[in-house]
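Re-running the complex after MR caught last week's input typo. The corrected sequence lines follow. Everything else is unchanged.
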Amino acid sequence: MAEIFAYIPHSAGVAEDIAMEYPDAAKKIDAAAAVTAVVTGSGADLDKVVEAMTGVYSSVIKIDNEALAYPNAEVVRKALVSVLPADAIVLLPHNTFGMDLGPGLSIKMDASFVADVVDIDSCDGTTLKVVRQELGGAVSTHVSCDVAAGAVVTVRGGSFVPAEDAAAGGAVVDKSADAGDLACKRRFLEVVEAEVGDVDITKSDLLVSIGRGIEEEDNIEVAQELAEAMGAVVSCSRPIVDAKWLEKSRQVGTSGQTVKPKVYLAMGISGSFQHMGGVKGNPYIIAINKNPKAPIFQVADVGVVADILEFMPEFTEAVSG
Amino acid sequence: MEILVCVKRVPDTAENEFELNSAGNDLDRDDLVYSVNEWDNYAVEEAIQIVDNVGGNVTVVTVGDDESEEVLRREMAMGANNGILLSDDAFEGADGKGIATILKAEVEKGNYDLILTGAQADEGAGQVGGMLAAMLDYPYASLVNKVEVDGDAAIKVGREIEGGNQEMNELDLPCVLSIQTGINEPRYVGIRGIRKVAKLEIPVKGASDLGLDAATVGDAAAKVKRVDYFVPDMGDGAEMLDGSTDEIIAQLIERIKSKGGLA
Ligand SMILES: Cc1cc2nc3c(=O)[nH]c(=O)nc-3n(C[C@H](O)[C@H](O)[C@H](O)COP(=O)(O)OP(=O)(O)OC[C@H]3O[C@@H](n4cnc5c(N)ncnc54)[C@H](O)[C@@H]3O)c2cc1C
Ligand SMILES: Nc1ncnc2c1ncn2[C@@H]1O[C@H](COP(=O)(O)O)[C@@H](O)[C@H]1O
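Corrected-run output:
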């Protein structure tokens, strides 16, 4: 069985949550496997993360280079290709960084690639069988992946059981000298922070959140009336912002805001993981959707199959009345 | 600037309720409504806007069957200058790497400065663009929500990262970008627009035209394969309310109150 390596994303000296989830994923690939954490970066921040990871992993590879201070996927790829064995199984986060790095890394390692894995079914010899979703979460699939020549696997956050922070007492292996030539054709310039909007959806206990089911810009008013009657705030899914019907600061999700209301009303939202990734703090989720098979009904507390355009005005009336 | 945009015909998630077939191993595809992958429309729009500004041509390409021609025509109605259909029985069952290998062969027949893909398609993989770039040894940026063209040597792009922040990068040309939704507002295509391009020639190329060994793409070469579709056991799921709308609303109001959402 090939060795398993877990790439640890981090910022400001703190590892992302996924670092605690990889061990469970790795165990499901091979219960006997030793998992090695790989941490790239530069200076004191890197050292802090490496130190923390020795508490979780029995072995930690550190690659320190100024060119890795910001995780530019092309630079990270070069470093990983230089340092990892050719038949490695590499675990990455399925986030904006893993999406940037994973596909190209698999080509350069001549390894298989499987993205956005939500569970691992089995690993029989060199055949890894994973669980994925397609069509925005509407259906699940089993996918087989030949790992004989290695594999790059991106893992969806929140899908595996986080490890307890045990004192693994991991050994640190410094591979900085093996990183090779890190010159690249893509240069990181800067991060521009998201603009702050007029409304702060993160402060509200009750959100009336609308998705593509609102159908037309003019219908947004219907949701606003409901929210007003309830003393709630209107938030939304990404397509509403893409269409420029509401400002970006109202978008809930991984590429928008993280909200922690007491009650979340999802109106015509299908429930993609990128959307639900922004709904935190275990709120009471009420989903209203005209499709009884909408994935949102799997994560909501209570559901109603209805047309929101008919349902919302009646709701408003009842609340106001 | 010569721009190639990769597009895919996919089941439309907004128009379908997905059911498994009776054998339970595939979707029931009989009545599925297909359209062009949402992300690809943004990629084509971006390409058209770049060419409007700096000159050049937009070519759209897809790996698919005869029916995929309709998505090429739709994107040509938007304003793409040329369409190319890559189609061959030997391509069937290709995994992401197989698709990227086929596209690479076509890229090498042209002289493109910029290659665009969508950030992801129906399978939610987001893999073809990054693979294609690595095979070509071109630089790559995913989830691009801003493109600034300034000269022929390099391009400045913004990537959408977590929290809606934007990561600015400079990439040498030629390069591959995967385009995120929201980067622009894709123009509307009406029936008249489609009619205008109905007669335009769309070349169809197979493995031999591309100089591809059939054994390196398609099912035999695929290392990653879908085994089945299934309905996951997600525990209880939501408690579904039924009854009259009035009753349902009364219950919801009660619950929102008890959870502290309503005074
Ligand atoms: C890197 C990345 C980051 C992303 N970040 C985010 C993010 O931060 N936030 C986010 O929301 N998305 C994000 N997305 C997009 C995400 O994948 C989904 O595409 C999006 O969440 C879908 O939004 P939706 O549920 O409103 O639309 P759809 O998936 O189209 O769902 C619409 C739903 O409305 C229902 N419906 C239609 N009409 C009616 C009606 N009249 N009455 C009742 N129900 C109706 C339909 O049955 C359907 O379930 C991201 C994607 C990527 C690739
Ligand atoms: N069969 C295909 N033909 C052409 N382009 C494709 C094909 N499959 C995927 N792509 C491109 O790759 C992008 C990402 O798709 P995927 O990697 O399948 O998630 C799509 O938005 C397309 O631009």
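None of the earlier attempt is carried over here. The first helix of chain A runs from residue 18 to 29. Chain A has a mean pLDDT of 95.
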